[in-house]
Amino acid sequence: MKKMLYIASLLGAGLMTSLHAVAGVDAARQNELLYFIKHDCGSCHGMTLKGGLGPALLPETLAAKPRDYLVNTILLGRENTAMPPWNTMLSRDDAEWITEQLQDGKVMETELVLNKKSQDLSGTGK
Amino acid sequence: MIRPLSISALRSALLGTCLLLAANVFARGTGDLGIVIERADGSVQVVETSTNSSLGRIEGLGDLSHASAVYSRDEQFAYIFGRDGGLTKIDIIDKKIVKRIMQSGNSIGGAISQDGRLVAVSNYKPGGVKIFDADTLELVANIPATYGDQGLQSKVIGLVDAPGQKFVFSLWDAGEIWVADMTDVNKPVITKFKDIGKNPYDALITPDGRYYIAGLFGEDGMVLLDLWNLDAGTRRILDGYGKGEKKLPVYKMPHLEGWAIAGNFAFVPAVGHHEVLVINTLDWSEAGRIKVHGQPVFVMARPDGRNIWVNFAVPNNDTLQVIDTQSLKIIKTLTPGKGVLHMEFEPRGGQVWASIRDEDRIAVFDTETLQQLVTFDAKKPSGIFFTSRAHRIGL
User: Fold this and answer.
1) CATH number of A24-115
2) Radius of gyration, CA atoms only, chain A
3) B382, exposed or middle or buried, with CB in 10 Å at 0-12, 13-18, 19+?
4) Span of A85-89, B20-24, B47-51, B231-235 with lowest mean pLDDT
5) Which residues on neighbouring strands pair with residue B14, listed in sequence order?
6) Which residue, among A31, A35, A53, would best test binding to B if mutated, counting the most B CBs under 10 Å from its CB?
7) Among residues B92, B104, B98, B99, which one has the least CA distance to residue B32?
8) Considering CB atoms only, which of A38, A47, A77 is closest to B249?
9) Could you tell me if B250 and A88 are in contact, meaning their C-beta atoms sit under 8 angstroms apart?
10) Residues A23 and A97: beta-carbon distance below 8 Å
11) List of chain B residues whose C-beta atoms are within 8 Å of the C-beta of residue A112
């Protein structure tokens, strides 16, 4: 059984990496970051990113903004607002990956894909 | 001494049972019940605190991130305020949704009036407060939080009920506190207090319903409004509490709740400092600061006021600290698991429930031994609300 799980997790890592190959952000980290976006960014921006105390993080509000500007906002925060600097918890690679997900509106979609893959996987593991 | 039951006593006992059965097969009181918000799934778990068990789940409540709840005075119904602007009335006995409406695009919290007939919701978008009939959820009053000369609308936070059929709330963008007197629902009387300070982020009302205190995010300080003496206006307290110290990042907005009052002390989270601030409620002066593990989020007094329990923002949200209110020292640091979001004390304080979001479970602690008693499953739990709130001002 242990062996099965091991194989399953190897398979899983392979599948996820092939989904989103981003330098410095492996599949496991992507999963963590998705959770982070939903629950920690979500505490101000809303779990579905439609906004709260902070503005909405939907592609229609973010797509036109320069990528570097958003990456820097995540890492360094925004003065005189409630947006804190996240560079104590996130690397530049993390912030770039998050920005890409948000600008392209892929957060919910990516999560679905990852969930589906892990469900498929639990099927093969049995 | 055991006395044999008399025939008449037996008869009335039997009759009583039959009547109960006829009325509702599952009749039971609700005084030991509560709900746990399952934020990601849009569901609510109904729990009981007498033997610590789950009684079932109510689903279909929408986006419940940052959801909160108030209770009807008969403790049968809960009103759930969802982030997506949903207002849902649930029946915790029959475990079903009674009515659900989408009342705004984005909301943050709510309150129930002194007489139990009005439910108010504070909204981010469009910014303001809407007031509904608690029975039917029909809109009875709309109070847009319009401020300044440009007709801007502010996000509203820190909404509480107050004696005299009032609701009190704060305007995040405008820096104002408004008191809405709903004695005549057709003619709400609004009293506005302007220029109170920058970005009030939440507020509490003292358990006696007299003082409304808003915390400021944009400045180091809090604002006090004496509801018995509205003419006196607002007053700044703890002004500049962090002066000269570097402000630390705030990774989650702290909360203020009315029951962080213990004896003559009020305990509140500092903003941008890893401290719990102690206020002397006799003169509202600073009475001390307690260094804690991280940015405090909830600072809650055990109902008898002996201890204070504190949880923290990320990345320190795996920890709970317990402060002794006599010595003002931390007596215990617990690490129950990742994502400790909220705590709720049983009404008499013997146990405290904590939601541990990232581990999909609830942990129940004995508040004397500080040991975990039991843990059970909940899906991404956040707020925990016991029915005893039905009879507390401001909750």
Assistant:
1) 1.10.760.10
2) 16
3) buried
4) B20-24
5) none
6) A53
7) B92
8) A77
9) no
10) no
11) none
Amino acid in the structure at residue A52: G
Q: How confident is the model at residue B4 (pLDDT cuts 50, 70, 90)?
A: low
ipTM of the complex: 0.83
DSSP state at residue B367: T
Residue recorded with tokens 């919910």: A108
Which residues, 6+ apart, have CB-to-CB distance to B33 below 8 Å? Answer: B46, B47, B48, B49, B55, B75, B92, B386, B387
- Tell me how crowded residue B31 is: count the other CB atoms within 10 A of its CB: 15
B-interface mutation test, from A40, A73, A74, most B Cβ less than 10 A away: A40
Predicted local distance difference test score (pLDDT) of residue B34: 98
Residues contacting residue A28 through CB under 8 Å, at least 6 positions apart: A13, A16
Burial class (CB in 10 A: 0-12, 13-18, 19+), A26: middle
Which residue type is seen at B243? K
Q: Hey, what amino acid is at B40? A: A
Which residue reads 């307690």 in tokens? B290
Q: CB distance B63–A46 less than 8 Å?
A: yes
Where does B103-240 sit in CATH, by number?
A: 2.130.10.10
In this model, does residue A2 exceed pLDDT 50?
no
Token pair belonging to A40: 């920690």
CB contact under 8 A, A82 and B65: no
Chain B positions in Cβ-Cβ contact with residue A42 (cut-off 8 Å): 65
Domain ranges of chain A: 24-115
| B245 DSSP 8-state letter | S
Q: What are phi and psi for residue B359, nearest 5 degrees?
A: -110, 10
Summary mean pLDDT of chain B: 92
Supply B164's token pair: 């005299």
